[in-house]
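SAMPLE LOG
Freezer: B-3
Tube label: C17
Construct: single chain, 225 aa
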Amino acid sequence: MDKMIRERISSLFLFHEMHFEELDAKYHVMEKVIIQKYCAGEILLSARENPVGLAILLDGSAQILSGDEKHPALLRTMGAGDSFGAASLFSGEKGYRTCVRALEDCRILYLPAVLVEEICLHEPMAARNYIVFLSGRISFLNRKITAYTAGSALERLVLYLLHLPLASDGSWELDISYAQLSEQLGVGRASLYRAMDSLCAQGLIRREKKKVTPLQLETLKLMIQ
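STRUCTURE (predicted):
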């Protein structure tokens, strides 16, 4: 296992404020992980598959989509180091509620469910980290539901932008068209463009076609709290 993979695992939320070297020696974490390669456009996880384990995107990028095969909605775009699958691991349900698709060639590392369960059973801090992480996800989803159902076009747009990964140059790259974005946010295209223009006029963002650069990131975050 190379150094990058070890760093990705040790920085996972599950091991926050824990000594990973000691955990690895005790549970043989590095020996038990599973690494799989996927090509751009390939489906990583879907409702047809049972949860494999807690997943970490080692490199490349991927999208988490809603489980609706006919009209999938983009829920999240992930970059290297991001994790997924935590909510499904102990749900007791077969299959995933969402679908994960590779945007480009990537590698996924899985911590098997039995390994994660063993660590959580014997390491109270790991169990606490898992609960804290899931609580944060629930809180975020509640804010997202509120914004998407009761929020204005501006609030929905800001929430969407904040959930995109920042590129190395500090910008967001929209991975869908504006027509698709307006449909996903449940607002008209005119309302979407007005919201985008308003953020630009307030000096909060700069837009160049599908590239959006946040100029006042903290102010944007306050808008959806």
